[in-house]
Amino acid sequence: MAFRCAMVAFLVVQTVAPLDLTHAPVSHSYRKIRIPTLSPAHEKITKALLPQPTSAPNYNYNYVVDDPRTGDSKSQQEVRRGDVVHGSYSLIDPDGTRRVVEYTADSKNGFNAIVRKEIIGRIPAAPAVGEILANDVQYY
């Protein structure tokens, strides 16, 4: 019965105000714009105005984290001489092994890494979150 009422209502609406499913014509107008190109003089001016490196980038850094409270243990060292970077990092994976990654990057060969796993014989036991939070509460 509800279906019949819905059909009658639909037909009444269609006879009173039929749906207009036609669309108005759509026109698009595009105007041509000229995209500026850089001249060879622009490159010379840019090089003259911007500071150019006077020497090849060189750096050496490292860090070590060994936190017995959280079980976090990791390290990294990296050396850069010009465009050649050598380095390594290590961390303790959740399965108790140490992952060591040694890498080299240069413009000729790209980034190359050697990954190895070392069994360290222990799975770090992280303290419960409640224990950490309880010890870190400070009252003012």
In short:
With 140 residues, this protein is of the alpha+beta class.
Topology:
Elements: H1 2-16, H2 40-49, E1 58-67, E2 72-81, E3 84-92, E4 97-106, E5 110-119, H3 129-136
Antiparallel strand pairs: 1-2, 2-3, 3-4, 4-5
Structure description:
- The chain has a domain at 64-119: N-terminal domain of TfIIb.
- The model has no long low-confidence stretch (mean pLDDT 76).
- The chain is built from 3 helices and 5 strands, in the order ααβββββα.
- A 5-stranded antiparallel sheet has the order 1-2-3-4-5, with no helix packed on it.
- The chain has 140 residues and is an alpha+beta fold.
- Helices cover 24% and strands 35% of the residues.
- InterPro entries: CHIT_BIND_RR_consensus (IPR031311), Insect_cuticle (IPR000618), Insect_Cuticle_Struc_Prot (IPR051217).
- This is Chitin bind 4 domain containing protein.
- Keywords: Cuticle, Signal.
- One of its GO terms (cellular component) is extracellular matrix.
- It comes from Asbolus verrucosus (Desert ironclad beetle).
Would you report the number of β strands?
5
Please state how the strands of the largest beta sheet are arranged side by side.
Answer: 1-2-3-4-5
What CATH architecture of the domain at 64-119 do you see?
Single Sheet
Strand content: 35-45%
Please give a handful of descriptors for the protein shown.
alpha+beta, N-terminal domain of TfIIb, Chitin bind 4 domain containing protein, Insect_cuticle, signal, cuticle
